């Protein structure tokens, strides 16, 4: 499926453009803020090619794509005008916890790439110094060091931008507030006051002598406050001068309040958080890495892992290293990869083996959602194995007091961020912890196996198929092996096992009794769910979606019950050929992995209603 078409299908199945309040993306997911989550069709989204899974968590409706998520996001952004505002009365109420998680994700996820790039640069620089390839006193070091420091020092500016988007403020005024906290004149005044033992005042009110570089909480509170001040400034500003009067009033109110009240409050909260973390590190250093290492998969499933991002960033800013989120999440991700790769080692199913290998490698590198939703959660016991491996590795990290010295994506490639401190031991312990996580989860997954009667795959116990289906030929024509179809999506088996036909008649009949699960505006394809749970897709022609329904006539609608031999479509084959398109027709079982076997029992020429495909269920 072309990315443009995929983007259109995704937007359509989340309830249309009018149901989208906002859209962001992370490394693997499109993250929709929907006005009404109930309008989204999860089953249809999960049936789309390139969609690994769909979850609704943390106040966001998330479509898991994988490595191509950025391209899909760009396609949607280019082809749709996303809503910048919505009627408040149309929003669906969300719980306070969901709102908090949604806010944290919306503020921190967009800035992660900048922090990751800068963090890896800092880690690389630490390695170069340790290897004595760069002198810490050299100008090269100083320049590279401030390049790596920039994203962290100007963190209030980055957060101002993403917070403004989340709170619905003017981004540029918010960025200005972030700049005020870091302005050289302001920082010089603070330094001079500290040096001379004097105070700093604004309108006779004391300004706290705080350093806001790399701070997190003050700017978020300031922009949140601005979300209330800005509408007020708009209301009281006369229309003729509102263009400059509103931002002027906003700055005159926000800046002093931030410097005198909000900023110090944010610093106090940040310092308090740091004290709590230091107490944990002093008296129970093993506890947090153990819990994070073991339970990160569950946190990811609920979206609560985003709550650890500001904790880790705040600790980096206040202490120079992070023991809260980075170490535990790193070994958790590697454990996910180990558990998934064990599934690949154990399974005899080629499709599952390929999926487990690709997602397992991605998880080790730090991208866990495909492994979590596609393999480990699906078969349950590998998820337990990953939690065991992550927990044991996290315990080791905590006992050894391992910390991360830069903000990077947690995974094997995060290891350079553990260079720091007075010796190389921190890095060595981090490497050992990765080995523990992988080996323990891999072995545990081999021992526990896959939750299935015959150690083969199916989604879960409620999805076991106990009856067999026989699919009839939906069209008169010549049978073609699916692997010979000149379209990689079908020939590779990515959509499932099945068969193809060179049609000689344009009438398409139902191959099985069941219910119509999907129709398309272009009428070129139909989905059917059989009475025994087989999900059958009939796709007429290659690239025939471009005809926009020309030459197609449908006789069914979604959710309509049909019996074997029921006329579904009529297709004018000559119209397809006149557009230089191939009329080859595919019939695939898209949930083939839920069955013991899907086999083609007929070859050569077939008539409509000839038995063609046998679906063998687990006994």
Explain what this protein looks like in three dimensions:
A hairpin with a 2-residue loop joins strand 5 (201-202) and strand 6 (205-206). With 619 residues, the chain is an alpha+beta fold. The longest helix has 42 residues, at 242-283. 47% of the residues are buried. It has 20 helices and 20 strands. It has four domains: 1-80, Glucose permease domain IIB (Gyrase A, domain 2); 138-273, no CATH class; 285-448, no CATH class; 469-617, Distorted Sandwich (Glucose Permease (Domain IIA)), CATH 2.70.70. The strands form five sheets. Strands 15-11-12-13-17-9-8-19 form an eight-stranded antiparallel sheet, with no helix packed on it. The protein has a four-stranded antiparallel sheet with strand order 1-2-4-3. A three-stranded antiparallel sheet has the order 7-20-18, with no helix packed on it. The protein has helices spanning 3-13, 42-46, 69-79, 96-108, 112-130, 139-153, 155-167, 171-182, 184-196, 217-236, 242-283, 287-302, 308-319, 326-346, 350-365, 369-379, 381-400, 425-448, 488-491, 573-578, and strands at residues 20-25, 29-34, 53-57, 60-64, 201-202, 205-206, 469-472, 477-480, 497-503, 507-509, 514-519, 525-530, 535-540, 552-554, 561-562, 567-571, 585-589, 597-600, 605-606, 611-616.
